[in-house]
Amino acid sequence: MATSVRARPDGSPPPPAPPSTPGPHRRAPSGGLRSTLYRWDLKAVPYVFVAPFFLTFATFGLFPLIYTGWLSLHRVELGGDARWKGLENYTDLATSEFFWNALFNTFTIGVISTVPQLLMALGLAHLLNYKLRGRGFFRVAILAPYATSIAAATLVFAQLFNTDYGLINTFLDVAGFGPVDWEASRWPAQIAISTIVTWRWTGYNALIYLAAMQAVPQDLYEAASLDGASRWRQFLSVTIPSIRPTILFTIVVSGIGATQLFGEPMLYGGSVGISGGSGNQFQTLSLLMYEKGWVTGALGQASAIAWVMLLLLLIVGGVQALVSRHQREKLGG
């Protein structure tokens, strides 16, 4: 059915319709070559933009991972040829007392450093969440240890925990306790290293908790206050449940960091830092891997240790995924 066009009141014909303008979407140009180039432009250009990332990842991430896995199945020494060994490097680790000692040290140092670190980070974040005078300065100040060099921090703490003239033993002597050998004894050495890790990462985790706390709705605190809950009760009943996913995240990240702990124990031990002390009392998996690869030259065994560490990290990540899924199902149900 044709649409009628009304004439003007004076009887003159209506003005011609304006030419149609193209829509917001481009149309494919006509012609074989131009049409082909246009289709390639739509399909290939996005991949060209993201290609540098994948090339960098494949070069510095994927290839070293695969090559390390290949080395772990061979007997390889620095400057020598690779000889197939299969899973022998892994079976040797299973019967090596040095490996189990390093695994135990990694676990204990991780627990000793992670638990106090996260507890203090929660307390600091809770204090900074309130309106304090100079709150911005304190937020920056608690991040200063994280920005400090690992070497500088470790050397300072090594002087503090020195057995002969360290400040810690001086305070213990004033308090009536005898001097502690912070380097040659297993637990004192691990406590000293854990103190360095705790000092460096507490402020970083506190800021993560603070960001999570500021996202908690204020209505929950107001309702708890009307019910007569104290600040401590609000912290336990409102703050902790609200930031539980963030707490789980920091636990997993701290566990991954503890598995890869390398710089602090190596610098703390000085000349015997690579072996984790004179009796391997604080040698971690990372130190053992370095010792096997670059001191003894057994690259195959070092690669096997690296893959065992990767397996441990995957287990930690899997546990986090299962716990997060359980929490989501619990909240959804």
Describe this structure in words.
There is one protein chain. The protein contains 14 helices and two strands. The chain has helices spanning 32-71, 88-94, 97-128, 135-141, 144-147, 150-160, 167-174, 186-214, 218-226, 231-242, 244-259, 263-269, 285-295, 299-332, and strands at residues 74-75, 83-84. The chain starts with 31 loop residues before the first helix and ends with a helix. The model is unreliable at 1-5 (pLDDT under 50).
In short:
Helices cover 68% and strands 1% of the residues. The chain is built from 14 helices and 2 strands, in the order αββααααααααααααα. Mean pLDDT is 86; it is low at 1-5.
Low-confidence stretches: 1-5
Helical proportion, percent range: 55-70%
Order of helices and strands: HEEHHHHHHHHHHHHH
Overall pLDDT confidence: 86
- The rounded distance between the terminal residues' Cα atoms is 58 Å
Provide the spatial order of strands within the biggest beta sheet.
1-2
For the sheet with most strands, the description reads: 2 strands, antiparallel
Count of individual beta strands = 2
Radius of gyration: 31 Å
Sequence-ordered SSE layout with sheet pairings:
Layout: H1 32-71, E1 74-75, E2 83-84, H2 88-94, H3 97-128, H4 135-141, H5 144-147, H6 150-160, H7 167-174, H8 186-214, H9 218-226, H10 231-242, H11 244-259, H12 263-269, H13 285-295, H14 299-332
Antiparallel strand pairs: 1-2
